[in-house]
Known about the structure:
13 helices, two-stranded parallel sheet, Rossmann fold, Tyrosyl-Transfer RNA Synthetase, Tryptophan--tRNA ligase
Amino acid sequence: MSKKVLLSGIQSSGKAHIGNYFGAMKQFVDLSETYDCFIMIADYHALHSLQNPKEMKENIINLLLDYLAVELDPKKVVLFKQSDISEHTELTWIFDTIVTMPYLMRAHAFKDAEAKNKEIDVGTFNYPVLMATDILLYSPDVVPVGADQKQHVEISRDIAEKFNRIYGETFKIPEVLIMKEVAVVPGTDGRKMSKSYGNTIPLFAEYEEIKKCVMSIVTDSSGERPENVYAIHKLLRPESELKKIYEKKAGKYKELKELLIEDLEKFIAPMRERRKNFEKDIKGALAILAEGGERAKKVASAKMAEVREKIGVNVY
Ligand code: ADP
Ligand code: TRP
C-alpha cells in the first residue's frame, strides 16, 4: 500500500526562527518518515509583502538552505517552489469564481489588516485562495501547520467541498495537523514568536546572538519562575527535568537564562554547521529545488487537466 500524502510550506519572507522550527519544520522532518511529502517554498505568498527582487531571491535561497540544514531529505521529500508550478495561480482564478467576498472577509488575516486600517491589496485578501490551490493540487491527506494557519487549511477544505458540489468529486478534503504541545512558541516578549514582532530567536543564530536574544527575554518579577524563559526552555528539555531545575533555582533568573543559552547553543550548533556546508554549494542546492519542481509539476498538471475537464473548457 502506498503511503499517505502530506503537504506543507513556508512563506519565504525572512529569517527562520525557532518558532518556525518547532511549529513547522521539525514536524515536516519527523513526518517525512511516515508520509510521502511535498514541502513548498511559498514565494508568491511572500510577494505581497516583499517587492524587492534581490531580497526575494535571497529569501528563496535562504529558506531552501534552511530546509536542507534541518535535514529534510530530498530523497524522501519533494522540495519545490510555488512559482515553478503555474497551476497554482491558474487554479486560484478558477476558485476565485466560486469563493464569495463575504466568506473571505471573515478570515483572521484580512480582519487583522482591516483593523489596522491598512489599504489591503487584493493579493492579501486572496491569500487563502492561493493557499487552497497549494494544498488541493497535490491531494494531501494531511497539512501540518502552526496553530495560526489552521483557519487557512479549513478554508481550503471549504473550497474543495464547494468545488466538488458544483462540478463533481475532484478534490480530496485535507486534514489539518497541529502538534498541540508546540502549538504556539512564545517570543522573547511573551507574545507569539514572529518575524513581524521582532521577538525571535533565529534558528541559525551564532552564540553571541543567542546570548543577546535570551538576555532580552522579558521576565515578570511577580512569581518565582520566569515564565517566558521557561516556555522557551521546555522546547529543549523534558518538563519533568526542567521543573526540578527551575524549583532549585527559584528566583535566580540570570542563572536560568545562562542555562537556556547553553541549551540553545547545543541545539542550534549542529544545524548551523550543516547550513554553512550547504552554503558552499548553492548551485547544488538549487538543482535539488529544480528537480523537486519537476516532480511536483507532474502531479499538479495531472490534477489541473482533471479540473479543466470538469469545468468544461477542455474542448479538444
Ligand atoms: P512569522 O510569524 O514569523 O512570519 P510565518 O508566518 O512565516 O512566521 O510561519 C511559518 C510557519 O511557522 C507556519 O507554519 C507557522 O504556523 C509556523 N510558526 C510561525 N511562528 C510560530 C510560533 N511562534 N509558534 C509555532 N509555530 C509558528
Ligand atoms: N501561509 C503559510 C504560512 O504563512 C505558508 C503556506 C503557503 C502554506 N501555502 C501553504 C502552508 C500550503 C501549508 C500549506 O506559514
